[in-house]
Structures are given as structure tokens and as C-alpha cells.
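re: ur question from yesterday

yeah so i grabbed the chain u mentioned. its 203 aa long if i counted rite. heres the sequnce exactly as i have it in my notes:
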Amino acid sequence: MTDDQHTDPDPDNQIAEIVDTIHDMRGPGEATVGALIEQMGVASFTPILLFVSLVIVTPLSGVPGLSSVCGLLIAMVSAQLLLGRDRLWLPDFILRRQMPRRKLNTALSQVEKPLSWVQEVTTRRLSFLTRPPFSYLLYSICLLCGAAMPFLELVPMSSSLLASVVALLSISLISRDGLFALLGLTALATTAALLLAVSQLLF
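ran it thru and got these C-alpha cells back, copy pasting raw so excuse formatting
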């Protein structure tokens, strides 16, 4: 049986570890971007992409300026993945960014259950879509989505839609499940069509 035909849950699926880490993030401690990334693991590039994109999907994205900061973070992490770096570097102005602890705890509790479900349903399907050269395309899409967020912050729901694309692609790359890559590309096409329609109405 080939890798792409395998349908049993992958015991090395990192999603379960991410769920545990997100659970541990809840509490009264410091809530800077740097502190949260340190808990996630500064060498865990793709899990950080997933975590940040999920934060933007929650109501926490309503905090002024947070979507822009998270978008820049997604773009920088994706760029360093494309460059093959093994250690993440981020500027201090992003690392020092504070998140409201109460709202953050609420957001983290909201993503735990969906992520647990994702961990159960992901498996190694169409995994060639998550390996080079296709993985470079996925990272590039994440980079573009993140880079677009600061420019679209005033457009309602735009950051959350782009973050959903990044989340689906990150899940695919972490779990080696190409089905989620296809879902992410479908979400990207839908988001692009919606943003084009909105831009035509506004301009």
C-alpha cells in the first residue's frame, strides 16, 4: 500500500500536540506575540502559521491592528519556510505586541474543539501535494495571504477569509493531507472572487 493510499490516522500527526499546546496557553500569564510563539516552539514554523491563522479567524481579529500584525507574521514565517531557515526570526515590534488576555483565552477555547476534530479526520491522502515542489506553492500562497491582510484590514471579513485559507493549507502541510490543500485552494478561489466583487462595489 502506498503512502497516498494509507487511510489510518497518522501517529506522528502534530495537530494533537498543537491542541495540547493551545490548551496550555490559556491562563493569566503574559500575552505577547513573542511569549505565545515561544510556547508554540520557535522552530515549529508551520504550527505557528496554523496558530496565528486560527487566531485571526476568531473574534480576536476585531482587536484594532491585530490582523495586520498577524498578517505580517504569517508572511514572514512563510518567507522563511521558503528560504529553508531552521530558526525563526521576527522583529521586536511584532514580538512585543500585546493581546488582550481575556479575549485570547476565549479565542483559544474556541479553536480547541475544531482542531481536535481536524486531528481525527486528517490522514495521509494525496500527500504529494504537501511535498516539494507543491509545498513551495502552498507556502507562497500563505505568504501572499499574510502580506495582503494589512492592506485589507478595513474590508470586513477579508482577514478572516484569508486566514482560513492559511489555516487549511497549514493543516495540510502538518498532517500531509493533500485533501486539505485542495480545500485551501478552493477557499482561496472563493475568497478572491468575493474580494473582487466587493472591490467592484466599492470602486
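noticed a couple things. Confidence is low (pLDDT under 50) at residues 1-9. also Residues 178-202 form the longest helix (25 residues).
anyway ttyl
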